[in-house]
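lol forgot to send this yesterday, sorry. C-alpha cells for the thing we talked abt
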C-alpha cells in the first residue's frame, strides 16, 4: 500500500530555494539514498550567468549534474538537474546558474551552511564523518565562505593592534596573527614572522578601508622583525612590548642560571623545584614560600636570579609612568651588575627596549587576547588534522576567532 506525504515537494522546494520557472519533477529513493530531480519549464527567457541580461533559451547542458544536499531521515540526499543554456548577445552561449548552489560547487547552499556550522565547533575529521564528505571538500567550502567574508570585512574603525606569531607546522613554520585589540578579533593572518608580514598586513588594512595613520597603538613581542615593520608601517602608533613576553625573557634567563648552577651539585633538588620558581611569590602558598626560600638559600645564584624576576612584577605594579621608569632603570642596573651572564644579557635587552616596555602604562595594551586566541588555534590544529596548507589554516583561524559575518545560509533559520 503506497503512502503519500503531503507537501514533501514544497518542503524540498523551500530547502533549495526553488522559484518559477524551476520546479521539482520527482523525488525518488535509490537504496539508502534520496534523489530529487529538478527541471525548468519550457518557453521562458532566462538570465545570462555573466551579465544577468534576459536571453533566449538554447537547449540544455550535455550531462546531468548532481549536488549533495542535506540528509533526509539520516539518508544522503542528492539534487539532479540538466541546467538550461541561453544565448547571450555579449557572452555567447552560457549555462544558467542553479539557484540552489554556488558556481563550481558540487554541494547545495544549505548543505554548505550546515557544514560551516559544524566546522565552527568540531574538528574537520569529525565533521567529515558526520556529513559523509571527504576532508578536502570541506576545506574548500571553508575557504570559500571565509574568503568571501574576509573580502567584505570592514577595517575602517581599527585603531589598536596586537600582533603575535603562532606555529603552523613542525619545525620553524609560523604565521603572524593580527588582532583588533578593541573588538578582540583576528583581522589578518600572514605567512612567516618577519617584517614583511607586518608590511603585507598594512596593505590589507588599507584595502579594507582602514588607514595606517589611524593606528594609535600596537602591541607585540620583542621581535626585531616586528619592531622594524611596525615602525615602518605605523609611524604614529605607540609600540608596546607585551609584558608577558618581557616576563618570559627574565624567566628564561633565570632558568639558564638554574641549569648552570645545577651542574655544580649532585643533588636534583634544584631541578625538581624549577616549576616552583616560575610561580610569583605573591601567588605562592605559605608552604611554597618556605620551599622557595630554602632553595634560594641553598642555591644563591638561582636565588638572586629569582629575586630579579620578582622585581619585574614590582615594576608593572607601579602607579605611574615615572615610577615605573625609575624602577625599571634600577632593575636594569641590578641585572647588568649581577655577575650572572644570562641576567646581564637580559638587562641589556630591557635597557634597549625600555621605552616600548614602559608604553604599557600609556596604552594599557597587552597581547593577552593574542595568547588566548593562540591557545584556541593550537587546540583546533591538534584536533583537526586537515589544515595542511596555509590557506586552510588561515581560514580556520578566521572562523574560530575572526567574528566574521558569513554569507552562507544558516539551516537553523528554517524553523524561525
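and heres what i got for the seq, position by position
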Amino acid at each position: 500500500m503506497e503512502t503519500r506525504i503531503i507537501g514533501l515537494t514544497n518542503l524540498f522546494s523551500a530547502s533549495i530555494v526553488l522559484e518559477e520557472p524551476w520546479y521539482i519533477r520527482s523525488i525518488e529513493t535509490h537504496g539508502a539514498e534520496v534523489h530529487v530531480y529538478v527541471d525548468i519549464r519550457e518557453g521562458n527567457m532566462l538570465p545570462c550567468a555573466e551579465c544577468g541580461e534576459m536571453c533566449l533559451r538554447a537547449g540544455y547542458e550535455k550531462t546531468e549534474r548532481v549536488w549533495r544536499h542535506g540528509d533526509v531521515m539520516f539518508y544522503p540526499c542528492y539534487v539532479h538537474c540538466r541546467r538550461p543554456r541561453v544565448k547571450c548577445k555579449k557572452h555567447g552561449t552560457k549555462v544558467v546558474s542553479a539557484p540552489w548552489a554556488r558556481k563550481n560547487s558540487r554541494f547545495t547552499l544549505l548543505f554548505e551552511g550546515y557544514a560551516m556550522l559544524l566546522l565552527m565547533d568540531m574538528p574537520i575529521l569529525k565533521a567529515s564523518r558526520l556529513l559523509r564528505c571527504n576532508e578536502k571538500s570541506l576545506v574548500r567550502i571553508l575557504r570559500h565562505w571565509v574568503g568571501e567574508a574576509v573580502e567584505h570585512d570592514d577595517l575602517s574603525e581599527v585603531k589598536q593592534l596586537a600582533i603575535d606569531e603562532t606555529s603552523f607546522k613542525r619545525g620553524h613554520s609560523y604565521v603572524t596573527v593580527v588582532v583588533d585589540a578593541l573588538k578582540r578579533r583576528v583581522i589578518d593572518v600572514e605567512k612567516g614572522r618577519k617584517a614583511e608580514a607586518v608590511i603585507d598586513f598594512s596593505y590589507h588594512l588599507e584595502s579594507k578601508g582602514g588607514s595606517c595613520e589611524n593606528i594609535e597603538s600596537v602591541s607585540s613581542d620583542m621581535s626585531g622583525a616586528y619592531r622594524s615593520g611596525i615602525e615602518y608601517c605605523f609611524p604614529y602608533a605607540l609600540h608596546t612590548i607585551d609584558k608577558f613576553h618581557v616576563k618570559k625573557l627574565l624567566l628564561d634567563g633565570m632558568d639558564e642560571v638554574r641549569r648552570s648552577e645545577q651542574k655544580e651539585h649532585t643533588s636534583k633538588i634544584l631541578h625538581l623545584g624549577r616549576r616552583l620558581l616560575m610561580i610569583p611569590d605573591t601567588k605562592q602558598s605559605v608552604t611554597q614560600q618556605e620551599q622557595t626560600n630554602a632553595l634560594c638559600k641553598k642555591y644563591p645564584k638561582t636565588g638572586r636570579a629569582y629575586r630579579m624576576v620578582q622585581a619585574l612584577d614590582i615594576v608593572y605594579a607601579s602607579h605611574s609612568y615615572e615610577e615605573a621608569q625609575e624602577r625599571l632603570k634600577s632593575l636594569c642596573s641590578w641585572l647588568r651588575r649581577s655577575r650572572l651572564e644570562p641576567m646581564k644579557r637580559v638587562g641589556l635587552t630591557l635597557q634597549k627596549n625600555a621605552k616600548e616596555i614602559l608604553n604599557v602604562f600609556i596604552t594599557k595594551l597587552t597581547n593577552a587576547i593574542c595568547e588566548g586566541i593562540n591557545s584556541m588555534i593550537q587546540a583546533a590544529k591538534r584536533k583537526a588534522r586537515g589544515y595542511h596548507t596555509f590557506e586552510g589554516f588561515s581560514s580556520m583561524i578566521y572562523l574560530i576567532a575572526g567574528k566574521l559575518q558569513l554569507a552562507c545560509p544558516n539551516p537553523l533559520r528554517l524553523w524561525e
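The chain has a mean pLDDT of 88. anyway ping me if u want another try
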